[in-house]
Amino acid sequence: MKTVLQDRKPNTEELVIYREIVAALEDVVFSHDPEGRLTYINPAGEELLVSDLNSGPVEFSSFVAPEFVKEAYRRTDCQRRGEPIEQPWDLQVLNPDGTRSWIQIRTKPIYNSNGELIQVYGVARNIQARKNLEHQLQLYAQHLERLVDERTRTLRESEEKYRLLVEHANDAVFVTQNGTIQFPNPKATSILGLSAEDLLRTRFDDLVHPNDRDHVKDFQGLIQAGKANPDSIAYRMRTGAGRQIWVELNSVSIRWDGLPALLNFLREITEKKNLEQQLLQAQKMESIGTLAGGIAHDFNNLLMGIQGNVSLGLLEIDSTQVIYENLKNIEKYVRSASELTRQLLGFARGGKYEVKPTDLNTVIKDSASMFGRTRKEVAIHLDMGPSIWTVEVDRAQIEQVLLNLYVNAWQAMPGGGQLFLATENVTIGPEASRSNNLNSGRYVKITVADTGEGIDETIRQRIFDPFFTTRELGRGTGLGLASAYGIIKNHGGVISVSSVKGGGTTFSIFLPASTKPASEEKPGKQTKKEGREMILVVDDEELVINITQKMLSRMGYRSIAARSGGEAVDIYREQGGEIDLIILDMIMPEMSGRETYDQISAINPDARFIVCSGYSVDEKAADILNRGCSGLLQKPFDLNQLSTKIREVLDSC
């Protein structure tokens, strides 16, 4: 199946993560165009193959050993025609210092929608040391058979020489014969976590993960039968301590004591696999998040139409009428649906609506008190750190995260239990930052621990996945922990979980500390709800424009509608002197909300705006708010929210 390049632009944070991962790899990562000219190579490649890619195009063939050039072009031609090629491929390359090295290379062709080759990505590993070791050990194995009839002194001298070679190898080296391990070197005992004596009593299959045994058995069977060239496979093993690791195995068919056997070279690649998994997880979360964000945006626009019509309907009837209660129920259901889209947006974008320096102790005490009043069977214990640092967060979003964790804890303790909440100041150093996936610096740590039934390992690995839930169908959305993950990530922090089945669960949250003092929560200002000012409504959705204008008219305001950013700028250029306020949608085709804001502000720097969006506040909207935009309305909003925000903006000037 051909891989076709998708039109997708990763965000800056992703690019930095991918760039750092690729730059940190010991393997060579490169790309070349259909003509074989290099377009990228990572630092490992520059050291091994090309010292300078900036001085001009570098042909792939310029650093391939002459005897391999023809095959290199043949493979590129095959990929250009969409034909499969054998993977991987061992070849020799010319190093910048004039020496040669063996590398093992895998390539991946990328095609455009017309099926034309546009780029070839590749990963190469320096296998010179392995080739040397294979050659030496092959000679060693062959030599052992010849030594049977030679004199004892010659045998001892040869054994000593090759023993030193094997014992000081960086890879695990051992022989398998009839399924049992023979002749393990010290590195084998180190990686597999068993002594040499224990390994000699252990069947090789017993160390292989049960799900990978057939794969490994088939691979070694082909090598033993001489039906496959020596190559490597990756699979999982369990060490003597029960730890699961990823390894890469290369096997060579030999004869040992006159009988068929396999000479094995094994390298642990657990860290490499973890990096690959992080990259795949980031790509998966990004793609699902984009879908979820788009659904939430469109759904919020529909809710806006429902909410607006309900608000207008409630103004026209008396509270004693039967239909009044029906409309109030619809309004309640709209709020529930809005909360669902808020969770979608929390996962998809980790949206922050109103960021302020905040005292997390206060947030935790308030949220725990509210939760405790409804769940009296759960005993809550607080351990709030003294002089806790402030953090710059959206309080409502952090409360949403905490309440999701409280509810999960309550569900894990159906008969009641203990919930422990703690905060502390922590400083993350360079070493700890790598293991915690954080930048070095000051953080506030939140711990939420329960005495519930715990989480099985297979479930624990998926709890932050969107739409994953262990609750029965119809009893949960699977968005609570996914949105918590997105919110904490968007605040520059991390959330992790540890659990033992039957031994409770602990969530740990790290949020970057701030040097700013905590903001005080001020009561909302009471404002009148009607006015006579002229308002420009800018939105690309007709139903949103219609209902917003109806609500404005019901409150006495005059309004003009613009269905695009360009139309809004034209209207303001002609009638700006009559317009008192602009209600501006952030997400519009062709000209975005930020571009519209900039162009109208250039006409009149004192123009007043209310940003209105079905999305969370992203960097673009936050930039507008920081530059003087007067207010924010999150769809769906009702008539009271709209009137209050309008008077708040107009009366503040």
How would you describe what is shown here?
Strands 12, 13, 14, 15, 16, 17 and 18 form a seven-stranded mixed beta sheet that branches. Strands 1, 2, 3, 4, 5 and 6 form a six-stranded mixed beta sheet that branches. The protein is an alpha+beta fold and 653 residues long. The two termini are 62 Å apart. β9 and β10 (244-256) form a beta hairpin. The radius of gyration is 32 Å and the shape is elongated. The chain is built from 21 helices and 23 strands. α4 (128-147) runs antiparallel to α5 (152-167), α10 (270-316) runs antiparallel to α11 and α13 (395-411) runs antiparallel to α16. 43% of the residues lie in helices and 24% in strands. The protein has four domains: 3-126, PAS domain (Beta-Lactamase); 131-268, PAS domain (Beta-Lactamase); 279-334 and 525-653, Response regulator (Rossmann fold); 360-514, Heat Shock Protein 90, CATH 3.30.565.
Remind me, CATH topology of the largest domain? Rossmann fold
Largest sheet: 7 strands, mixed
Rounded to an integer in angstroms, the radius of gyration calculated over CA atoms is: 32 Å
Terminal CA distance reads 62 Å
Strand content: 15-25%
- Residue stretches low in confidence (pLDDT < 50, at least 5 long) are 471-478, 523-528
SS-based structural class?
A: alpha+beta
Which homologous superfamily in CATH is the superfamily of the largest domain? Response regulator
Number of helices: 21
The total count of strands amounts to 23
Global morphology: elongated
The CATH architecture category of the largest domain equals 3-Layer(aba) Sandwich
Helix content: 40-55%
Mean pLDDT: 80
Q: Which class of the largest domain in CATH terms?
A: Alpha Beta
The tally of domains stands at 4
